[in-house]
Amino acid sequence: MINTIIAIIPLILFFAFWIFIIWFVITLVHSSKERNELLKDISRKLDNLQNTNKLD
């Protein structure tokens, strides 16, 4: 019984490690996507501002 529990511990740690890696990558991709959308919005606003200044 105790040998089975000791044998399962590395397996649990292995899966926990990979779940953490997958969670980290998903979080990183999601943050990058949000950052890119924000930068696109800022870029659009700056383009509109520059176009307005050129027309004046």
Q: Spans of 5+ residues with little confidence (pLDDT < 50)?
A: none
Mean pLDDT: 91
Rg (C-alpha, Å): 24 Å
Give helix % range: over 70%
- Helices and strands: which structural class? mainly alpha
Give the termini distance in whole angstroms. Answer: 82 Å
H/E order of the elements? H
The major beta sheet can be summarized as: none
The number of distinct helices, counting runs of at least 4 residues, comes to: 1
Percent strand equals under 5%
Count the E strands. Answer: 0
Shape: rod-shaped
Q: TL;DR?
A:
By secondary structure, the chain is mainly alpha-helical. The chain has one helix at residues 2-55.
Please give a handful of descriptors for the protein shown.
single chain, about 55 residues, mainly alpha, about 95% helix
Write the layout of secondary structure elements.
Layout: H1 2-55
Task: Describe it.
By secondary structure, the protein is mainly alpha-helical. It contains 1 helix and no strands. The chain is rod-shaped and about 80 Å long.
